[in-house]
Design brief:
With 498 residues, the protein is mainly α. It is built from 26 helices and no strands. Helix 3 packs across helix 9. The protein is globular, with a radius of gyration of 23 Å. The two termini are 36 Å apart. About 2% of the residues have low confidence.
Amino acid sequence: MAHDEPLHKSLIRDTTAYFAYVLLVTTLGPFQFGFHLAELNAPQDVITCKKDSLEQSALSTSLPHCIPMNTTQFSVVTSVFTLGGLIGALSAGPSCNQYGRLLIMRATTVSFVLGSAIETFASNIPMLAFGRLAAGLGCGAAIVVVPIYIAETAPPKEKGLFGAFTQISICMGILVTQLLGYFLSKGNLWRIILAVAGVIGLVQLVGLILVPESPKWLAEHKSPQHARHILQKIRGHKVDVDAEVKAWNIDATEDDISEEEALLSAPPGSHPAPNPKAATASIGIWDALIHPAYRPAVIAVVAVMFTQQLTGINSIVMYSVSLLSSLLPTTASLLIVAVSALNVVVTAVCAPLSDKIGRKTCILLSIAGMGTCSTLLALGLLFGVKLLAAVATLVFVASFAFGLGPVPFILANELVGPEAVGATQSCGLAANWIATFLVSQFFPIIDKALGGQGKVYFIFAGFAALLGCFIAYWVPETKGKSGMEEVWGKREARERME
């Protein structure tokens, strides 16, 4: 690709219809994460019986129209989703290294379907909480394995762009559930919102039948020759994949199987017999934490993931309707739909920026914008300035979408070697889920303890300042660097090989 080749031309050339299909199906996992994250936001008052819902609805069922809950109980139901996510994230990294990316993605769809079904038919608090826990298991695993899979199948020169599709899908999930909530937060129609996620889970399960295993994982654990042919199918038959195959550092030139066997006879998700010559040892979570070569990367990814949540984005995603309703009683729900749409647009528009100005630059600019807007939002809510609160909310979300939303999901794959990607991603996503739990569980409690009026956003601004300074000091730039050796230096590379 020429250095100054327009992005749309390179995308047309590098993106096959098959890769587009693979990308669409796999990113339904992150879509589910965004969907479940925000599904209780708009209908909160109806679900908890705080808002009278006596009007007749088209959904005829013997299930109750609402489930009585106080603030603490609702916080538990909301945050238990993150407990499932934490368990899923911790287990997905080692599992996807051992059993493959594809098998774990298929397993997540079962969790989506079962969890959504339990939520939809819940008649009490424990049942609703258990459904969210089950859905959280799949979501936690999905946002570990899908970014890894995309990084291993995307065209090398557009990894940052396609890596952003994880966050774009999360944003789309949030937008869809907010739109459904805007129209269905009445009667017992809120149950339809929860059921939609189950239907999407079934669609993904069927769609994954035609999705192949990651060629890079196959090369390292099974058959390099089969992996090469799958990569060729993803890239297109006329594309030269020699450079990508060479980057695996595995001999994939032996013609043990014919191209016709690989591309036509074998099902897309099938695995050939293990190849001992291609196998590499995977690094577990504990080994990644204690090994001096991997520990800096784990700290970097964990810090960025903590920052993604402790700057307060999920306070908007989960609680914004109730938070803003006192200041904007008639337009809060509509504003949040607009915020969710803005999140999708800015994430998509800014997706190529990490490939142009750098991952670290995007993250630091994002943190600066969110910290500033947190302060302005707190002032707007505190002094009742409606316009300031509304604008600060919009720019706050746009700042998140610019960098801190999409970039963290691609860092693990660029900071460590392939043998430690799963463990590093699991550590990072575990930190992400812990921080998400802290925000979802304690945001309404702290906000109430501080007397409301948005004072809690001063705390988020403080976190942005502290964590931004740490990231500026610790996290290296990965743009344009081919692997761990370039990112961290030759000494760490030698330690890793010992």
